[in-house]
């Protein structure tokens, strides 16, 4: 008779500490909505800035991936500049979209806005402390989940190249559509808060799925199933 399978560990059901930090960081904009009177523009600009942060840490992920493989290092010489250019253009166009539709008219009439344009917008919206909180959240995830857990040793560079785009596209659609709805309703408090909560939920689900480990199942005697 086959002995019953005994699940010895279920790490996928545990929320990692970095996920807790992620939720706390996302609560900062929620506090901005309730206590600081943040506008739709401030919230969307902060979420856009987080996409920039995600891209920056992804460059670090690619740089640190498989450090003992000389072939991978040759590949990185070409892929990292390509990613910076392609993803940089992607988020820049997204940022222009946010500035043009929800901003205060500070977008230049000709050419692409400079980094100073976005910096001025961030300072004017008063979201710099929240941006630092998001930077800290992603930094902790990078340090503990990627470097500390050794994920960088087996990370696939090709997968890392496309990693941020799915998240950014989903959030782009949800946030922009939600932003239009909130703006159409006159920026009431509750819809803005719901937009922040929805974005936080998407972040959390994606984070837990990315870092969840498979369930380990063994039979009595320590033999794997």
Describe this structure as you would to a colleague.
The protein is mainly alpha-helical and 225 residues long. It has a domain at 36-167. The protein is 71% helix and 4% strand. The protein is built from 7 helices and 3 strands, in the order βαααααααββ. A 3-stranded antiparallel β-sheet has the order 1-2-3, with no helix packed on it. The chain is globular, with a radius of gyration of 21 Å. The two termini are 15 Å apart.
Give the gist of this structure.
The chain is built from seven helices and three strands, in the order E-H-H-H-H-H-H-H-E-E. The protein is mainly alpha-helical and 225 residues long.
For the structure shown, list the relevant keywords.
7 helices, globular, 225 residues, mainly alpha, disordered C terminus
Strand order of the largest sheet: 1-2-3
The total of helices stands at: 7
Instruction: Note the main sheet.
Output: 3 strands, antiparallel
Unreliable parts? 5-12, 213-225
The assigned structural class equals mainly alpha
């Amino acid at each position: 008779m086959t002995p019953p399978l005994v699940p010895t560990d279920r790490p996928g059901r545990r929320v990692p500490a970095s996920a807790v930090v992620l939720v706390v960081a996302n609560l900062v904009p929620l506090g901005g909505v309730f206590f600081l009177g943040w506008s739709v523009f401030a919230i969307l600009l902060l979420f856009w800035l987080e996409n920039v942060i995600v891209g920056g840490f992804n460059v670090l992920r690619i740089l640190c991936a498989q450090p003992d493989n000389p072939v991978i290092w040759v590949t990185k010489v070409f892929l990292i500049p390509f990613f910076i250019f392609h993803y940089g253009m992607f988020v820049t166009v997204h940022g222009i979209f946010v500035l043009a539709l929800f901003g205060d008219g500070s977008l230049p009439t000709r050419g692409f806005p400079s980094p100073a344009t976005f910096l001025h917008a961030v300072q004017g919206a008063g979201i710099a402390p929240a941006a630092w909180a998001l930077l800290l959240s992603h930094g902790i995830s990078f340090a503990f989940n990627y470097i500390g857990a050794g994920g960088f040793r087996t990370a696939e560079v090709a997968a890392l190249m496309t990693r941020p785009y799915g998240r950014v596209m989903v959030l782009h659609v949800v946030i922009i559509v939600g932003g239009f709805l909130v703006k159409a309703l006159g920026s009431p408090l509750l819809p803005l808060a719901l937009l922040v909560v929805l974005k936080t939920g998407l972040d959390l689900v994606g984070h837990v799925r990315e870092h969840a480990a498979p369930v380990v199942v063994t039979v009595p005697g320590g033999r794997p199933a």
